[in-house]
Design goal:
12-stranded parallel beta sheet, 10 helices
Length: about 375
Amino acid sequence: MLSTLALVPPSLRKLTLILQEDVSTDSAEQLLKLLVYRTPGLTDLVFRTTHLTEVDIGDRLRNWLSISTKLKRVTLPQFYLTNTTIQTLSRFDSLETIGLDADPSIPYSDSPAGAFPIEDGGFPSLHGLHINLPLPVRASGLGAPDLFGKLQALTISERRLSTNKDLRISLQAIVSSCPQIVKLCLNLFTDQRTRMEPILFDSIQPVFRLRLKTLIVHHDSPMYLRKEDVEEMGRHWGELQQLSLCPDPRSDTLKKQPTWTPLSLLPAFAQHLPKLRSLALFLDKTSVPSYDGDILPTHQLEQLTVLNTGTSWVPGGNPYVVGHCIGAICPQIEILSSSPSKWRIQGDLANDSVRQRDWVTVGVLVKLVGLSSQTMKKRLRMAEK
């Protein structure tokens, strides 16, 4: 591996560096040492390792990064974004995004606690950040608004959130620090040993102050939504395009929360959030949707092309009714997904092949009913002319 470094041209702009498990700490340090001064024009870096910790090679990594001052986009392994590394990266004038190559199988490690000690003028171009951040965040959030005031996309990963109170306090602080965010992702899948109450809709209300276009929340428990909640989202987020609220919970949490979001709420989404293009929810298994056969309901999600039902079972166990219901309200569906996100690693889905088969049947019907709805609408428009 080290012998190939002689082939690295100084004009190199993009680099993906993956350290496999057979690479020792000593070899990794030697590699990072040799890379210093060999990549002066580097703009894009993806650095991956799952077995070497920040404690092992963090110093060498920062030495290399400190020379790569033209970086625009950098992705680091999970738990590598320490305060010291953040300080190093904050000096790069061109840096636009910081990502984490997050892997839920990596053991938990301490992370920055927010309010980073960064000099004035740090991160002048940063608009995208993914960070491991212990919650609750202190009142100072991620720092003063002039530090992350330009941030537009924020992803927070935290495995040990325990209460809704901590989440609400944290979101209040984050909103104050990052008032320009339009995309917010919260990866809150916990360690198995962590006991966390289901996330309440009230807990995310501090982010109503943001003009969000994307909100993604992953958690071990499903989030229960009422019609009033959808109406409130519509009042604050009229431009919302992507919404994902805990679509793939852990199976053992479902016994503690008997009621989940019913499919009958879909018309409310169509009425109050008409610009949605992607929607992900965990649906109530026992709530049987009613469908009167109308393929042109009053409100439709005409821009929705992706519907993700996560680890839900088909509501009522009737793929035919569910397929007709979804197809009528969401006539433009291109992707109907029933798969969990990459963050969910628990192998606890019983009879999953049956569940997936039912959703495949739903998907076929959604396409057919959606096509019929679009055809009928075109005919009515032509008749009106």
